[in-house]
């Protein structure tokens, strides 16, 4: 039977952007093999400011700006990269490396070579960004053997799942939502710990009840939880 995890009582509020930043900061501090690379992630603090302050703290060797060319994603043996896509729409430029290299190396090496890499960034529709920035790739990556895919919606889930993704020995795709970056959510005391992680692959009971069941995904949780709150 599938296990579940539940959110503990809330203590403070934190935006999704700050939760993601905190998760990367804690993992960079915890493991010197972890580093972040992507377009404008260093001196510019990231296109959505998710990596704010990390370059000043960890320097050029750990926070690395790359050319505006998603095909330049590299896998480096013995390290644990976090690759930020400015938008997952342009991850198609690197699809061969993600699908045919990262996702399949562990299987094709008979379990001898793991690929601990995180691909993260905004995914899906936003506001006024037109066709080339509005696609959702959850189904694409979710149907690829060898990849783990997570799509957090609130701050606690964003922090806990990103930390688990960074520590995982497999390639993990973290699909974030641009519209939720600046939204504050309650963070439990447990979630504020540097040891806080959320296991990948376990469903979450957001609110217990006996009148019906909603199975939700990604940013739709934000709308539905607010709707339930208003109805009750």
Automatic annotation (TrEMBL):
It catalyses: N(6)-[(R)-lipoyl]-L-lysyl-[protein] + pyruvate + H(+) = N(6)-[(R)-S(8)-acetyldihydrolipoyl]-L-lysyl-[protein] + CO2. Residues 14-183 form the Transketolase-like pyrimidine-binding domain. The keyword NAD does not apply. One of its GO terms (molecular function) is pyruvate dehydrogenase (acetyl-transferring) activity. Signal peptide: none annotated. GO terms for biological process: glucose metabolic process; pyruvate decarboxylation to acetyl-CoA. The pyruvate dehydrogenase complex catalyzes the overall conversion of pyruvate to acetyl-CoA and CO2. Keywords: Carbohydrate metabolism, Glucose metabolism, Oxidoreductase, Pyruvate, Thiamine pyrophosphate. Heterotetramer of two PDHA1 and two PDHB subunits. The heterotetramer interacts with DLAT, and is part of the multimeric pyruvate dehydrogenase complex that contains multiple copies of pyruvate dehydrogenase (E1), dihydrolipoamide acetyltransferase (DLAT, E2) and lipoamide dehydrogenase (DLD, E3). These subunits are bound to an inner core composed of about 48 DLAT and 12 PDHX molecules. Interacts with DLAT. Its EC number is 1.2.4.1. CDD domains: TPP_PYR_E1-PDHc-beta_like. It comes from Oreochromis aureus. The gene is PDHB. The keyword NAD does not apply. It holds the Pfam family Transket_pyr. This is Pyruvate dehydrogenase E1 component subunit beta. Its cofactor is thiamine diphosphate.
